[in-house]
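Q: what sequence does this backbone want?
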C-alpha cells in the first residue's frame, strides 16, 4: 500500500486514495534501468548517460500509463465523483478505453464522442467500451473538429447538465496535477545521490498534457531543491495539420501552463520522429519496436516506440552525451496495438 506524505497542492486526498483502492491502481510506478544493446556495444559506458524508464505502463492492466495520471485530477476536483462523464477520441483511443473502464468500475455513466462512424466495424477498443456500458456517439470528422469550440461545448453541457466534459486525450489543466505526481515519485526513486546530476526527462507528445504536467512537476521539484539540473524533451508522435504551424505543440504546452508564473526548466519538443504523422509508422520503426520488445519490455509504434526510437537515434549520434541520466516515460497505450 502506498503511503502519501507531504505532497503539495493537496492532490492526494482521501477520495483519491479510495479510488486507488477501488480500481487497484499501483503507485508509485517502478523506475527501471535498461540499455540499448546496439548503443551499449558501440559506446564507452563510463561516458554514456545511464538510461531509466518510468514504467507507468504498469500502473494498471487497463488504466495504464499517463491515462490514469491525467484522469486523477479530473475525478477529484470536487468532493464527489462526477455524475456523468463525456469525452472525445478516435476508434482506437487509449484515453477513451481507460476512461470507459474507470467509469464502469466507479458506476459513472459514460458517453464517448467518436471521430467517425464505426457502427459497422467496431474496433477492439470500442467493443470494450460497449461491454463496459459506455455509449459511443458517432461524430462526423467535420463536426468533431468543433470539440474545442465554446459554443459546441456549451450546447453539449446544456444537453447533459450533470456531466463532466473531459477534453480529448484528457488534456485539461486538472490533468497536469496528476502527471506532476510522477515527478514527485521520481525524486524519491532517484535518491539524493542522483537528484543533483544532469538529468533529461523524455516523453511522447500528442495533446501536450503529459509534457506540461512534467514541466509543472519539475518546476515544483526545483523550487524545493530537487532535480535542480533537469531538462525535459518531448518527442512529437504526430505532425501539424496543413492549417497549423509546426510549433502548435509548443503552443499547446504553453496554453496548458498559462496559470503558472514560476520560472520553468528548460524544455523543447523534437519534431523529427513522427514517421509521417499520428499512428503512422515505418519498417525501421516496426523492426526497432519488435527487437526492443524482445530484449526489454513491450513498446508500440504509436507512442512509446517513437520515443524510444528517437532516444536510441539521438544517443547513437552522441547528441545526449552531456547528460548523466536519461529518464523515459513509458506512457502505456499497448491496447491500441490490437486489430
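A:
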Amino acid at each position: 500500500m502506498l503511503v502519501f506524505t507531504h505532497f503539495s497542492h493537496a492532490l492526494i486526498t482521501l477520495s483519491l486514495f479510495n479510488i486507488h483502492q477501488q480500481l487497484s491502481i499501483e503507485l508509485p510506478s517502478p523506475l527501471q534501468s535498461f540499455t540499448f544493446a546496439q548503443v551499449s556495444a558501440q559506446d564507452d559506458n563510463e561516458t554514456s548517460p545511464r538510461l531509466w524508464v518510468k514504467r507507468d505502463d504498469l500502473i494498471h492492466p487497463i488504466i495504464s500509463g499517463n491515462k490514469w495520471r491525467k484522469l486523477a485530477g479530473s475525478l477529484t476536483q470536487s468532493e464527489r465523483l462526477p455524475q456523468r462523464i463525456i469525452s472525445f477520441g478516435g476508434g482506437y483511443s487509449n484515453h477513451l478505453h481507460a476512461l470507459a473502464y474507470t467509469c464502469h468500475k466507479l458506476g459513472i455513466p459514460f458517453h464517448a464522442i467518436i471521430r467517425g462512424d464505426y457502427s459497422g466495424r467496431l474496433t477492439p477498443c470500442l467493443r470494450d467500451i460497449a461491454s463496459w456500458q459506455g455509449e459511443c456517439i458517432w461524430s462526423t470528422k467535420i463536426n468533431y473538429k468543433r470539440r474545442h469550440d465554446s459554443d459546441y461545448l456549451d450546447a453539449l453541457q446544456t444537453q447533459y447538465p450533470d456531466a463532466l466534459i473531459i477534453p480529448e486525450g484528457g488534456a485539461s489543466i486538472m490533468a497536469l496535477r496528476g502527471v506532476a505526481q510522477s515527478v514527485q515519485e521520481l525524486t524519491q526513486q532517484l535518491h539524493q545521490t542522483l537528484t543533483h546530476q544532469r538529468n533529461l526527462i523524455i516523453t511522447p507528445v500528442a495533446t501536450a498534457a503529459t509534457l506540461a504536467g512534467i514541466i509543472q512537476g519539475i518546476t515544483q521539484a526545483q523550487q524545493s531543491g530537487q532535480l535542480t539540473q533537469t531538462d525535459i524533451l518531448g518527442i512529437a508522435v504526430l505532425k501539424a495539420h496543413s492549417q497549423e504551424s509546426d510549433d502548435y505543440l509548443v503552443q499547446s504546452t504553453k496554453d496548458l501552463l498559462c496559470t503558472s508564473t514560476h520560472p520553468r526548466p528548460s524544455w523543447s519538443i523534437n519534431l523529427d520522429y513522427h514517421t509521417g504523422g499520428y499512428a503512422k509508422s515505418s519498417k525501421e520503426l516496426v523492426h526497432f519496436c519488435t527487437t526492443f520488445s524482445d530484449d526489454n519490455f513491450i513498446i508500440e509504434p504509436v507512442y512509446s516506440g517513437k520515443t524510444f526510437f528517437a532516444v536510441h537515434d539521438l544517443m547513437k549520434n552522441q547528441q545526449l552525451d552531456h547528460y548523466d541520466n536519461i529518464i523515459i516515460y513509458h506512457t502505456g497505450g499497448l491496447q491500441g496495438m490490437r486489430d
